[in-house]
Amino acid sequence: MPISIEIFNPANGDLVGTVPDCDADAVGRLVATARESFEKKTWRGLAPSQRERILWKIGELLLEHRDELARLISQETGKTLREAAGADVAPAADCFRYYAGWVRKLYGETIPVDGPYLNYTLREPVGVVGAIVPWNFPLQTAAWKVAPALACGCSVVLKPSELTPLSALRFAGICAAAGLPEGVLVVATGYGETAGEALSLHEDVDKISFTGSVETARKLLKDSAVSNLKRLSLELGGKSPNIVFPDADFDAAVRGALWGIFGNKGEMCTAGSRLLLHEEIHDRFLAELAAKALKLRLGDPLDPHTQMGPQISARQMDRILHYIALGKREGARLICGGERDTEGAKAHGYFIKPTIFANVTPEMRIAREEIFGPVLCVMRFREEEEAIRIANGTTYGLASAVWTNDLKRAHRMAAEIKAGSVWVNTYNAFDSGSPFGGYKQSGYGRDLGSYALEQYTNVKSVWVAL
């Protein structure tokens, strides 16, 4: 009998709900359900126009339930209502509407070949997909995987984080209400060591799409090797450089740096956690940024005036505080924050004050390792080449940004930075049509855009003798 997992509100410790920790048998039953729906063609066998309408309807229903979903996500994660609605629900809805448009555009092609043959290709769904998603953007990330998989005709077993399963279950209910046939999307709640491992080892899962840590990705690779060599796509961690030159729009760059690290309380794989400031503007920029950070309002994420909520769990809070202590020992200069916020009602939650370190050097651990919290490492540079060297000097390569009004410099930097996304004079810009993923140990494969469709389809070559 699976044990129960209790879900707590990180802002106050209140119990939000409970879900089962699915063991291998429970996951096996869910996979069997998804496999049956795939083999019986209950979804992929529908008319393309019908599947298109259902995916579009899912997007519409997500928006209709925006307030309900935002509140639930906020209670699970500690993010503000504004962030839950605007950065989780709205992008998820848009993602389904985007991929609805792809259902009738998954074409094969005819290929001129030697000999008396007609050669053409078919693009077919890969099969049963295991979608393993993290807790920081639970609905958005689920949509990034489920929507293209469904557009391609796959069936999906969604494995949410053990910290955010309630929004995943509600999401599956909305998909069913939109007309998605039974068994096409099922949810396996539980811990990574139980439900996640059972999914990754299952011989009847054809593909895993994973967003999470490098450590877990290594385990998934091993599980694929010892099971059925299932296909993997991996979106992993980041230590993103945010580079500001003297000719940048100063105020816009300060805002970009502020929300690039303190948005979603720093719990973002794309967080601009390394701020590289040119020496000409370093002191002025740092002073302005610190002043704004000190004014950020921490508190109840359900309060519309709150700008930063709590970290998602005591474990995550302790991890962040450990890195803050490490930064002090390494010799970085603490500019602001650096401690837990226990004022008033916040004493019952996992709040950490916005933290900025200056005098950070590239070899420090706080500059190399992903902290996943509201901790900013500020570094000084002089030459463009130095900024590129620092930017590329980690094992990660997920995202980056460059702030400059020099068009030639912007394109040079975009070409030289080893990252899957380079933002110029903005930060954290996303669109359902634009691919997202990493270089180096930030993973491989892409979510979003037409590129994601490659992850969920097989290409078959058909030869006909004439």
CATH class term of the largest domain? Alpha Beta
Widest sheet: strand ordering: 12-13-14-11-10-15-16
Largest sheet: 7 strands, mixed
CATH homologous superfamily designation of the largest domain: Aldehyde Dehydrogenase, Chain A, domain 1
β-strand percent reads: 15-25%
**What is the strand tally?**
18
Radius of gyration: 23 Å
Low-confidence stretches: none
CATH topology of the largest domain: Aldehyde Dehydrogenase, Chain A, domain 1
How far the N terminus sits from the C terminus, by CA atoms, comes to 60 Å
Please, how many domains?
2
* CATH-defined architecture of the largest domain: 3-Layer(aba) Sandwich
- Helix fraction by DSSP (H/I, runs of at least 4): 25-40%
What is the helix tally?
14
**Mean pLDDT over the full residue set:** 97
Shape descriptor reads globular
Oligomer: single chain
Query: Could you say which structural class the secondary elements and strand pairing correspond to?
Result: alpha/beta
Describe the structure.
The chain is an alpha/beta fold and 466 residues long. The protein folds into two domains: 4-236 and 440-465, Aldehyde Dehydrogenase, Chain A, domain 1 (3-Layer(aba) Sandwich); 241-424, Aldehyde Dehydrogenase, Chain A, domain 2. Helix content is 39%, strand content 18%. It is built from 14 helices and 18 strands. It has helices at 24-39, 48-64, 66-77, 81-100, 138-151, 165-177, 192-201, 214-226, 250-262, 282-294, 314-330, 365-368, 384-391, 407-416; strands at 4-8, 15-20, 110-111, 117-125, 128-132, 155-159, 185-187, 207-211, 231-235, 241-244, 274-278, 333-336, 355-358, 375-381, 401-403, 423-424, 443-444, 457-465. Helix 4 runs parallel beside helix 5. The chain starts with a strand and ends with a strand. The mean pLDDT is 97.
